């Protein structure tokens, strides 16, 4: 039987509904007893990072409540130095990165105790170079990226063993040129973004086979123009980010069909509520709204969006303000 791994795009797709997306994000999760507000509490810090980065790309950051966000982040830093997703939650490296990203965008790093954040991240590194997400010990290459991205944003990469960190990432490389979450795990676009991002920050892109890996990444594009995360999977707008950012760092963004992908991304807009969903017709959320906008930013469309930095997934002007120069292959 022919398995269906793609979708049909509608004949015509809407232009970028920028104002609708801004309103969708500005009002998302404000109603405290709304279902989504409760469901997203466990990842609130990341949800705020996705929303604020998307709003900044659209030039709407001044419409956000800066003081309220900074106050919330200060309250989420725990005794350990790590930062939690929400009040009374346990700290985790995922949310520590999201918090530091938000503070860099607001240019307000003095809101938290930087030294204690640095100590928390340093404590996550294992003898084999890998990183745990929190004190419970789960190892995942995503956490290596979070650790290196966080410390480099704070200009404190000196506190960890970068060479061992790179060594662990390279142990996660597979024969197809891709990367998995642990040594032996199958290649996945999200893990390729994390590994290439870490190699970009640490200046080790020479360790990968750019052609083989870029070929695997371009294989993610389907007839609908959308990108999936693994072979045989359906297209999803958030994979536009994982794949396009890695291809941009590898200097091979031009290998994807830009027109078809732009059409797919625009088809994922929710014309009623605003926001983007993973595929046309699904429910919009802040995560896919950010990654729909970052795809259009990376693809250099004529839409009025700020440039996104492919390594940090933060506005380019913020990375420049921090004097950071993550490596790219040209
Ligand atoms: C919709 O039920 C969910 C399921 C999981 C999660 S999650 O574990 O917190 N998380 C973040 C995430 C946030 C939102 C939003 N708003 C929506 C989805 C989504 N996914 C799930 C997803 C995305 N594409 C398809 N799928 C199924 C990724 C996941 C893992 C992830 C976390 C951080 C950075 C990258 C990836 C949240 C909601
Ligand atoms: Zn998705």
Describe the structure.
This protein is mostly helical. The protein has 14 helices and 2 strands. It has helices at residues 18-27, 35-39, 44-57, 66-76, 93-105, 114-123, 141-153, 162-171, 189-202, 210-218, 237-249, 258-267, 286-298, 316-321, and strands at 308-309, 314-315. The protein has a two-stranded antiparallel sheet with strand order 1-2. Helix 8 (162-171) runs antiparallel to helix 9 (189-202). The longest helix has 14 residues, at 44-57. It is globular and about 55 Å long. The mean pLDDT is 96. Zinc ion binds next to loops.
Count of discrete alpha- or pi-helical segments spanning 4 or more residues: 14
Helix content: 40-55%
Average of pLDDT: 96
Topology pattern, helix = H, strand = E: HHHHHHHHHHHHHEEH
Describe the largest sheet: 2 strands, antiparallel
The low-confidence parts are: none
Strand elements, count: 2
Which molecules other than protein and nucleic acid are bound? Answer: the ligand COc1ccc(S(=O)(=O)N2Cc3cc(C#N)ccc3N(Cc3cncn3C)C[C@H]2Cc2ccccc2)cc1, zinc ion
Secondary-structure-based class equals: mainly alpha
Strand content: under 5%
Strand order of the largest sheet: 1-2
Rg over alpha carbons: 19 Å
How would the global form be characterised?
globular
**What separation lies between the terminal Cα atoms?**
43 Å
